[in-house]
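Interim report to the steering committee. The following record documents the input for LysR substrate-binding domain-containing protein (189 residues).
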Amino acid sequence: MPFIEEFLVRWPETQVEASFTDRMVDLLDEGFDLAIRFSGIPPDSRLVSRVLARDRYLLVASSDYVLRNGQPNDLSELAKHTCLAFSSRGYRQRWRFSDPTGNWNTVPIQCRLRIDSGEALHNGIMRGLGIALMPYFLVSEEVQSGSFVHILPSVMTEEIEIRCIYPSKRLLEPRVRRFIDLLATGLKL
């Protein structure tokens, strides 16, 4: 929303219709000018994909959850904790971490709640429902304020690409180009 707000202030003659859904939409069939997506973008020759920023996942829990349940001391202890994960239309978030040798391993978790909305997942963390793996930019304010605790900060997590997906450049309207440029400038992580 902060980007949309800034866009509307800069270009008051422009109208925005936004859909905040975490499902994979078909931009062309559903009439969207652009979509913001996180990693794992399936190839579609009808679309252009531009990386706006790169980020890392953080393991986080609310300070209340940590007070009630403690923190895991290593990845193997995650199985003893309640975890929350993102899941949408057949996609289930994998919790992958790098070991000291640089090999990536998926860690099994006890997931009591899978949610298809990043906002709902964020709210679940805030309410103390468990530990979640979230992009840094979505939880940075809470981690800095102390309301969220960064769990196992020395563990290396996967990088995530924040991408803008849009139809062919030749069909790109100037208002869409301005919004993409605003996002690219504002998402410097």
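The mean pLDDT is 86. The committee is asked to note this result when reviewing the revised timeline.
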